[in-house]
TrEMBL record:
Residues 171-197, 570-590 are annotated as: Disordered. SMART domains: KH, RRM. Keywords: mRNA transport, Repeat, RNA-binding, Translation regulation, Transport. Coiled coil: none annotated. Residues 10-82, 91-170 form the RRM domain. This is RRM domain-containing protein. CDD domains: KH-I_IGF2BP_rpt1 (cd22400), KH-I_IGF2BP_rpt2 (cd22401), KH-I_IGF2BP_rpt3 (cd22402), KH-I_IGF2BP_rpt4 (cd22403).
Length: 590
């Protein structure tokens, strides 16, 4: 089989698609890059097959779009060949029996040092998988490295489970799927089994837009070399903020790898500046506003010491430059490449320590089960009335915009949920914004799919004066999207007193209504008391369908707390799995 010559067809594989990617979005992406497709087949799990004109177009599309940042996700784009095991040339292994809360970074830690990994992504588990476990496909640079991984990792105990590791083709399996919630690309971490599971703290920098081409290199050659040499993952956000003078680059990995990758990028920038006569270069680091104070220090003492120790000049952008959608400030460092790199390492370490300290001191999240505190922090301080926040979120808890990930072990793979939010018809224009600008900001910031129903398709008579907004995304995305809608309503004068009150609907399995109501209505009364919301359910047995609608009315924090508690209640079935093995589903009759 290994000696077979496969003829590449006209079908393209696109993996690790973002949650909001539909057929139109994929077609638009291809058209923007001068590719014409005849069909798009989107599969569950976050991947799609696209039919192009011919094999040559497929090859060009794969070369151009593989690694492309599409709506926040780094795409995996490859020619689709009938036999995935042949295409992978025996370089991929499947690691199964992995506890379902683990991420790709945890698997990467187990790989022997010096082994070159091209990709880790979620894949379908083998037929004999244990319930409550997941599988990853790991692709190596060579067949020998893949076989070495099988020999060293098969049977190794990891998080209480004995891993099963086998070559990809032994399963007779198709390609792995870079799912919506899978971790595409690698975030390299130090240590091995048993080391503390700290998050990858990304290094974010700004570069001039006309430097991006040199950093990426011809057909991605330069950026690929940087990632291979440093074992860091480098995401160049070249398609964001079209027309801007600067582009952001995010570097993931352990501290040393991030610093090495940044240094190599500076070297490329220096070469480009010398060849084009642009003079000296500046390293511009991005950091969340709430971490900046600890870089500056009291009276500027900390930043002065960093400058003295590294022989650099460091300045920080004004707080007036940040906004609700961009809470980062710029730390500009000038000096030699060696000294700028030393300053970056010191600053990154202080940012990392400050962030981890904030995580440990965060307020309890018992009011919002299933939601990581980072999500709650992401919208704090964005102008919402302080009186509307529950006491557990008050105080000096610092907000973060989702730039920095939570610790690996704190959250399982997130489920995607559907929520319906009702807004007055007269507020629709404000939520959409001029030429759709505001709703695009909501979608971009939250990562959720947000759709406003047309007035003609409204359907329910009880909502004739209101418009239904359908929000689809993870718990964190739901929090952010709903928050921004509530906040916009407040800004536009729709508050009752100091607070905005809206109606939210979620769907729950009909069999779980009794659990929510409780004996004599005890549970629902306690829910209303604890969350300060109004909760309306049909009487048990009154609905003939598989699912029923729960109506929740209240302020933002009230309806959020009620949503999270109700979803947690209906998910607590034997075995701890959500009902029907998935998230609460979208209503089909509207």
């Amino acid at each position: 089989v290994e000696n077979c010559d496969l003829e590449m067809g006209s079908k393209l594989y696109m993996g690790n698609l973002p949650t909001g990617a539909d057929e139109k979005a994929i077609r638009d992406l291809l058209e923007e890059n001068n590719f014409t497709c005849s069909s798009v087949l989107i599969k569950r799990g976050g991947y799609a097959f696209v039919e192009l004109n011919d094999a040559n177009a497929v090859k060009q599309a794969a070369d151009k779009l593989n690694g492309y940042n599409f709506l926040g996700s780094v795409l995996v784009v490859e020619p689709s060949i009938a036999s995935a095991s042949v295409r992978r040339e025996r370089k991929s292994v499947v690691v199964s029996n992995v506890p379902n809360h683990c991420r790709a970074e945890g698997i990467e830690r187990l790989i022997p040092q010096g082994v070159n990994i091209l990709r880790i992504e979620r894949t379908d588990p083998p037929s004999d998988f244990r319930e409550g476990t997941i599988a990853f496909e790991v692709t190596f640079e060579s067949q020998d490295e893949a076989q070495e991984a099988v020999q060293k990792l098969n049977g190794v105990e990891f998080e209480g489970n004995n891993l099963k590791v086998e070559m990809m083709e032994r399963r007779g399996s198709g390609r792995g799927r870079g799912g919506r919630n899978g971790q595409q690309g690698l975030s390299y971490l130090q240590g091995g089994p048993g080391t503390s599971k700290q998050p990858d703290f990304p290094l974010r920098i700004l570069v001039l837009s006309d430097m991006v081409g040199a950093i990426i290199g011809r057909q991605g050659g330069t950026i690929r070399q940087i990632t291979q040499q440093t074992r860091a993952r480098v995401d160049v956000h070249r398609k964001e903020n079209i027309g801007s003078l600067e582009k952001a680059i995010t570097i993931y990995g352990n501290p040393e790898n991030c610093t090495n990758a940044c240094k190599k990028i500076l070297e490329v920038m220096q070469q480009e500046a010398e060849s084009t006569g642009k003079g000296e270069i500046t390293l511009k680091m991005l950091a969340h506003n709430n971490l900046i104070g600890r870089i500056i220090g009291k009276g500027g003492a900390t930043i002065k010491k960093i400058m003295q120790d590294t022989d650099t000049k460091i300045t920080v952008s004004s707080i007036n430059d940040i906004s609700s959608y961009n809470l980062e400030r710029i730390i500009s460092i000038k000096g030699t490449i060696e000294n700028m790199s030393k300053a970056e390492a010191i600053i990154s370490e202080k940012l990392r320590q400050s962030y981890e300290s904030d995580l440990q001191s965060m307020a309890p999240q018992s009011m919002f089960p299933g939601l990581h505190p980072i999500a709650m922090m992401s919208t704090a301080g964005m102008g919402f009335p302080r009186g509307a926040a529950p006491p557990s979120l008050m105080g000096s808890v610092p907000p973060y915009s989702g730039l920095y990930p939570p610790p690996i072990t704190m959250t399982p793979q997130p489920l995607e949920e559907t929520t319906y939010l009702y807004i007055p018809n007269i507020a629709v224009g404000a939520i959409i914004g001029t030429k759709g600008s505001h709703i695009r900001n909501i979608i971009r910031f939250s990562g959720a799919s947000v759709k406003i129903a047309t007035s003609e398709g409204q359907g329910a008579a009880s909502h004739q004066e209101e418009r239904k907004v359908t929000i689809f995304g993870t718990a964190e995305s739901q929090w952010k999207a709903q928050y921004l809608i509530f906040e916009k309503m407040r800004e536009e004068g729709f508050a009752q007193g100091d607070e905005v009150r809206l109606t939210v609907e979620i769907l729950v399995p009909a069999t779980q209504v009794g659990r929510i109501i409780g004996k004599g209505g005890q549970n629902v009364r306690e829910l209303q008391r604890a969350t300060s919301s109004i909760i309306k359910l049909p009487e048990q047995g009154a609905s003939s369908g598989d699912e029923v609608t729960v109506h929740i009315i209240g302020t933002f924090y009230a309806v959020q707390s009620a949503q999270r508690r109700i979803r947690a209640m209906v998910s607590q079935v034997p075995g701890g799995r959500p009902p029907r093995g998935g998230p609460l589903r979208e209503k089909r009759d509207q």
